[in-house]
Amino acid sequence: MNKACIYQITNSLMDLMMSYVIKTKNGKIVVIDGGYLGEDITFFMNYLKEISESDHPVIDAWFFTHMHEDHMTSFAALINKFGNEITVKNVYFNFPSRDFMSRVEKGNSYFVYDPFEKAYDSIFGEGSLKAANTKTCFEGDKFQLDEDCTMEVLLVMEESETANNINDTSSVFLLTAYGQRIIFLGDCYINAGKRLLDKYGSRLKSDVCQMAHHGQSGVNLDVYQAIAPKMCLWPTPTWVYDNRNGNLRTLEVRTWMHDMGVEYNLIAGIHGTVKCDLPFDFEKIEKYSVEVK
């Protein structure tokens, strides 16, 4: 039996992206988002080979939070270049319609729709994305990934509430693995965060939290207080983490986490690609403060 683990992956360019890969004790591979191409997609394929310990990785489940390029373009690039060298068994998402993407995103991220559809249909058959109405998972779904390892869909988009912000179409996933809970917020924004909190309240309590929208301009403080994590995962390059552009809320969010007493933080732009064993043994993990000095 393997040692279960989770990787927070970034590419060598330290771009804005979100990519998590989980390996269960029985060797099942689960991907969340997968991130941004940013460079030759070979870098991600090499990680998948390393993690799976195989020259032909098998992805048992691939979950997407939402249709933004920094979260999902690697999927199409990977299938396009390595389609015969990788197997993807299941893909789970709850995406807006093409009309929604065209109306809200216009020229920004609408372009990701076509390559995703091509890649998805190449795996599951021509017309599969349209037949699924761009939705393969729904609120309340629970997937048994392996023994003592499940993924639950806590939240999916509501088009009526997300007319002006694609980030609020983010699905929220809860991984329960080996006695611990890891919540993945994607790029959840204020409306989605409010819906999440109203629906679950203190039931959101989790050991580990992926920071919404890369740790800036995501959910409000009350959502993080309900989650009350011991560790935060920051899929965040340094220019976002340090608010170098001067127009982000990262420093405010860092202050929230510091004041909440979160002692364990993994920041993509600082720590690079990081592997952690599951369940997390916090006595063996180095503490990292996000205090704003």
Q: What level of helicity do the residues show?
A: 25-40%
Q: Give the percentage of residues in beta strands.
A: 15-25%
| Overall geometry | globular
Q: What is the succession of H and E elements?
A: EEEHEEHEEHHHEEEEHEHEHHEHE
Overall pLDDT metric:
93
What distance lies between the first and last C-alpha atoms, to the nearest angstrom? 44 Å
Name of the CATH homologous superfamily: Ribonuclease Z/Hydroxyacylglutathione hydrolase-like
Describe the largest sheet. Answer: 7 strands, mixed
The CATH topology is Metallo-beta-lactamase, Chain A
Notable features of this structure?
single chain; 293 residues; alpha/beta; Metallo-beta-lactamase, Chain A; seven-stranded mixed sheet; six-stranded mixed sheet; 10 helices
Could you please describe the fold and organization of this structure?
It is a single chain. The chain is α/β, with parallel strands linked by helices. It has a single domain, classed as 4-Layer Sandwich (Metallo-beta-lactamase, Chain A), CATH 3.60.15. The chain contains 10 helices and 15 strands. The protein has helices at 42-52, 69-82, 98-105, 113-124, 128-131, 190-200, 221-227, 238-241, 250-259, 268-271, and strands at 5-8, 19-23, 29-33, 58-59, 61-63, 87-88, 91-92, 142-146, 149-155, 172-177, 180-184, 208-210, 231-234, 264-267, 274-277. It has a 7-stranded mixed β-sheet. A 6-stranded mixed β-sheet has the order 7-5-3-2-1-15, with helices on one face. A two-stranded parallel sheet has the order 4-6. Helix 2 (69-82) crosses helix 4. The mean pLDDT is 93.
